[in-house]
Amino acid sequence: MFVVATAGHVDHGKSTLVRALTGMEPDRWAEERRRGMTIDLGFAWTTLPSGGTVAFVDVPGHERFVPNMLAGVGPVPAALIVVAADEGWMPQSAEHLAALDALGVAYGLLVVTRADLADPGPATARARAEIGATSLGAVQAVAVSGRTGAGLPELRAALDRLAARLPPPMLDDPVRLWVDRSFTVRGSGTVVTGTLGAGRLRVGDTLELAGADEPVRVRGLHSLGEARPEAAAVARVAVNLRGTPRDQLGRGDALLTPGRFQHTDLVDVRLTGDPAADLPATLTLHVGSAAVPVRVRPLGADTVRLRLSRPLPLLVGDRALLRDPGRHHVAGGVRVLDVAPPPLARRGAAVARAQVLAAVDGRPDLVGELRRRRLVRAGALLRMGVPVHVAPVAGDWLADPEHWRRLGDQVTEEVARYVREHPLEPGMPVEALRQRLALPDRVLVEALVRPPLRVHAGRVGAAGAADGLPEPVARAVRRVREEYGDRPFRAPEADHLVDLGLGPREIGAAVRAGALLRLADNVVLLPDALDDAVRVLAGLPQPFTLSAARQALDTTRRVAVPLLELLDRRGATRRLPDDARIVVT
Ligand SMILES: Nc1nc2c(ncn2[C@@H]2O[C@H](COP(=O)(O)OP(=O)(O)OP(=O)(O)O)[C@@H](O)[C@H]2O)c(=O)[nH]1
Ligand SMILES: [Mg+2]
Fold this sequence. Notes:
Blueprint (H helix, E strand, L loop, with lengths): L1 E6 L6 H9 L7 H6 L6 E6 L5 E6 L7 H8 L4 E7 L6 H13 L3 E7 L6 H13 L7 E4 L8 H14 L10 E3 L2 E5 L3 E8 L3 E3 L3 E4 L6 E8 L2 E3 L1 E3 L2 E8 L11 E3 L6 E10 L9 E6 L2 E9 L4 E11 L5 E6 L4 E10 L10 H10 L7 H8 L1 E3 H7 L12 E3 L1 H21 L6 E2 H7 L5 H7 L4 E4 L2 E4 L8 H14 L9 H7 L3 H9 L4 E4 L2 E3 L3 H10 L7 H8 L3 H14 L2 E3 L5 E3 L2
Parallel strand pairs: 1-3, 1-4, 4-5, 5-6
Antiparallel strand pairs: 2-3, 7-16, 8-9, 9-15, 10-14, 11-12, 11-16, 12-13, 12-15, 17-20, 17-22, 18-19, 18-21, 19-20, 21-22, 23-24, 25-27, 26-27, 28-29, 30-31
Helix pairs in contact: 11-12, 13-15, 17-18
């Protein structure tokens, strides 16, 4: 299937043409038929000579309904530009063409209708000239009469040729179905319709909807009036949603593949075409089927920042248009350059930003994004419409290679400085390092640590320091081992601790690192002493007295009393009412 939208001035015969081609009524409302005028979008389809199907989105031509027209053409990449032979080029011929040009529509046909009323030659020549100067370029022209049917076979053949030229749909792209209608079907609930421009939809799919807390479920799908299990782009589709109230969505909302879009209310864009030098400060942004008021902040000669009054699921590269609703005037097209731009706080930030954007063209550019953002999550880039094909540096974080190298150097410098300033600590806490480098995630800090540095017990320090101990403390502990290794239950006396270089702070550091065991103030043993003590005591006749324990362990009361109390607390020994103890087995 391919989808084509009509375009053209009021009463030039768009709906008559669609009716003649399809046998279906595009004017759905009684009011439209009574007034002989299209107000809202109409939908119809037919089979072409090739056997393919063309679906039409028929738009209103009246200037009051241009917003409805834009909601119809927004998601549709091909247009049927209709001009009446007897009236020729008119204001909404021009405004509709400007809209198609702003959106970058590149495929279309010129249909000169009412050819039974006047020579189609002049209207064709003028329209061709106008269209030729836009994104549509040179188009084929067909003269028809909706009344007599003259020219319709030629038009069908031309539609087939147009279909053959269209680029193949991106079936693996995520779905962004801009809703153009929503209604309730008795017994089925909420149904929305739209033009599926890319991707696939299946019954049972889960989709995201802005503003809904929960994902929505596809309960049923219709295309060309028939229920189907699946629909693939490009297609007109009607989606029946399970459990979504009708008032939760409408024209301008979008159903989205989960995790692939980010709603944004701030975008930097390039103005396309001939941007007016003095854009009004407020305009309406039309994209997909949505229309939202925006505030315009100029950046550079052809770049502006738009603040949207409501967030939309926009991607880098999206085409949209700005319109001045008061003046019935398409102010220009835009191409989205950045959907998550940095704030402009400092003076001169706008100028600097314009310089950055001068090198950005709206084509997804991973290398450029990494250079500008330095560190960014893969998922965030994907949701901006930038495919990711490099490996993350940690978790799902991607880094600009140059920035990552600089951060690695900074880690080395910061840790060296910290260790100098805190010689008794076994390295710099990972969290302190994260804050110091202003990194958004601890996993990044850990990934930046390179030998001889290493992460141990939540700190970054030199590998090789015993259990992460600072070197002076590690040296003191080694000396304790040398002197007391063969009499493990003797503790150095207070003055000898000073000789060994173990003041209260050094002891604290060694105890925190598990290199020494503190029984009481200034009473320390090597940490394996506890298990050894239990083994020795278990060899005594049970129960045993403090004095028996002291002798068996070859130590003094200064050590034996707190050692046994510690073993009691740990449940390795139990103290009986008569102060004797047993080893608990
Ligand atoms: N003689 C003649 N009249 C036509 C032809 N096409 C349309 N008309 C008449 O022109 C009038 C407008 O036709 P529509 O098809 O409603 O025009 P439209 O472009 O859909 O108008 P809007 O949707 O309001 O913009 C109707 O009275 C049609 O009968 C044609 O080829 N020949
Ligand atoms: Mg009409």
